[in-house]
Write a structure and sequence with these properties.
Layout (H helix, E strand, L loop, with lengths): L16 H26 L25 H29 L4 H26 L2 H4 L5 H27 L2 H5 L10 H26 L24 H29 L1 H30 L4 H25 L1 H5 L4 H15 L5
Length: 350
């Protein structure tokens, strides 16, 4: 009779610090990349160069350090290039160091998505009205919004990779001694979904130049909450304000549920406090963007803090879902179990 537990099994994941720190470094790097991309949009410098993947036909275009628009756009391209190299390194490291299957799959998804991100960024430039000689910019804006949205998905994948390779996840069940309630995980998923939808609306608003469609906050210039008249820009701006209310309710519901559970409070209570602080900061930065008549730094910090809020919320939710994730059926595991059962069912040989 064996006394081995799943944690003692030879097939159990082993904490590898290199993978965790590699994922953490990638998260730090993408913070700079997101800020550079957001600032480029804030100062409307996305078309500082009409070509792609080179900038004015060069990796080091002349005068880019002296011109703000060129500096913003080219820095974003260079940071994205390094992010691509980090993604390749992340994938190689996961296989060389024999990471758990889930970490390997995440590394592949990260690599594929960074390639798609680069292509979307390039299409945003190549399909701009300046290159197509057309009256509208619908093509470029569509790819720009898709590029901004997938950046958030990419961020969540990096968070998942870092968490799944952390000591807490591997050796301490993500901080939980038993499976959290399904309601807690579901509230986390709902909060993450509302943040993603809000970021999409925000991306549409930014790329439609509707950040000041309602130029006062919290009320409209008419002293009302709801604008008396709507067009597309006013509508998308107002939708972003309504989305902020929905996100606030979703995040607070998630945090309150965490604080009400002693188990969850011990595991991610500090993270919940950080998330609540980021929410309040996000509201202030949104207001500041309007109060400063869309100062580019305020607008960019508002975008970046939204991404960080999503990252923290997803990290907490992902940890709450650890037991559910590991209980999902695995084809390889099912085959091994079936094979083992078949061996046991065979009559013993004399």
């Amino acid at each position: 009779m064996t006394q081995d537990s799943p944690q003692q099994s030879p097939n159990s994941p082993v904490y590898k610090p290199i993978l965790f720190w590699f994922g953490l470094v990638s998260l730090v790097w993408i913070t700079f990349l997101l800020y550079a991309g957001g600032f480029t949009t804030s100062i409307r410098a996305g078309m500082a160069f009409l070509d792609w993947p080179l900038s004015n036909g060069s990796i080091n275009p002349e005068g880019w350090l002296e011109n703000e628009d060129m500096l913003a756009e080219h820095s974003h391209r260079l940071l994205g290039f390094v992010m691509g190299l980090l993604s390749i390194g992340l994938c190689v490291a996961a296989y060389v160091l024999k990471a758990p299957p889930a970490a390997k799959k995440l590394s592949i998804a990260i690599l594929l998505l960074v390639i798609v991100q680069g292509l979307l960024g390039g299409l945003r430039v190549l399909l701009d009205q300046l290159n197509l000689n057309i009256d509208h910019n619908l093509y470029a804006q569509t790819f720009a919004v898709a590029h901004a949205t997938l950046a958030q998905v990419f961020l969540c994948l990096l968070v998942s990779f870092a968490v799944i390779n952390s000591r807490s996840w591997i050796e301490r069940s993500a901080g939980f001694s038993q499976e959290p309630s399904k309601l807690l995980g579901n509230l986390g998923l709902i909060a993450c979904l509302t943040i993603v939808l809000q970021l999409i609306i925000g991306a549409i608003m930014r790329h439609s130049y509707a950040g000041l469609a309602i130029p006062t906050f919290p009320l409209t210039p008419y002293g009302t909450i709801v604008p008396p008249a709507f067009d597309f820009q006013v509508g998308i701006h107002f939708a972003h304000r309504v989305g902020g209310v929905v996100v606030t309710i979703a995040i607070l519901a998630f945090c309150i549920r965490i604080w009400k559970s002693a188990e969850a409070r011990q595991a991610i209570g500090i993270s919940a406090a950080v998330l609540a602080f980021l929410l309040m900061l996000q509201i202030y930065l949104g207001a500041l963007t309007i109060w400063t008549v869309r100062n580019p730094h305020a607008a960019t910090l508002h975008m970046l803090n939204g991404a960080v809020t999503l990252a923290v919320c997803w990290m907490m939710t992902f940890r709450c879902l650890k037991f559910r994730i590991e209980s999902l059926p695995s084809p390889k595991r099912d085959v091994k179990i079936a094979s083992h059962s078949a061996e046991l069912s065979q009559p013993a040989k004399a």
